[in-house]
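FORM 7B: Structural annotation worksheet

SECTION A. Query
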Amino acid sequence: MCRFIKKNWGLTICFIIALGICITYVCILNNEGGISHTNKWFNLLFQLSIGFIINFIFYLTQIYIPQYKHDKEANKCVGVRVNEVADHMREIFSQLGIIYKGEYDESRVNNEYWLDLLKKINIDDKVRVINPSRFYSTSQSEEAHFTVREWILSRVSLVESDIDKIMKYYTPYITTDLMNAMEQIIRSTMHQNLARSLLHLQTNISFYNMNDDIFLKPYFALMKDLEKIRSQYIN
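SECTION B. Predicted structure
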């Protein structure tokens, strides 16, 4: 109800006024036993108020409430999609953290953590996830696993695919904050530089001599921003 009042405060005020007029009219009618000639205009105002109240109730029950339920379900769907985007982003960090740091704990990450992690990356190393395209036998040897290159590219692809679906199917429900967050993810160095260019080079890539992390830390910050926005849809 509070949501309705905030979005329709003008209609709510008019309803309260109309209701007050009706109550006043009934009180006068009971006290005087009828409406005098001087109160004929008040009688007209009463009739108009009754009409407004009827239309208000019709709008509330037949238009607003069904639309509210529809919007609520749509927002849940957007929340699920946004959650999937954040999970795909996190999968990059978790697998890199496991193979190069032994574990991944978001509560312990800092600038030094990200830079050290980036310097250790070898794009031909294997992550601990089997690539379905290589799952051609019962053997689950390391050769069937994603390489770091393949893993990052696959997660970035899933992120972009899910963002595209949100943009395509849920446009009316995308807030400005969510729109900006998704645009920043698409334009990030992780997508535009690492995934679009560096990881497609045939030669091996080394980040060992980098003095600043321009990939992992900024991407992590974008993921956390997205999670804050996601709470607006989930709750």
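SECTION C. Observations
The CA atoms of residues 108 and 114 lie 11 Å apart. The chain has eight helices and two strands.

SECTION D. Sign-off
Analyst initials: ____
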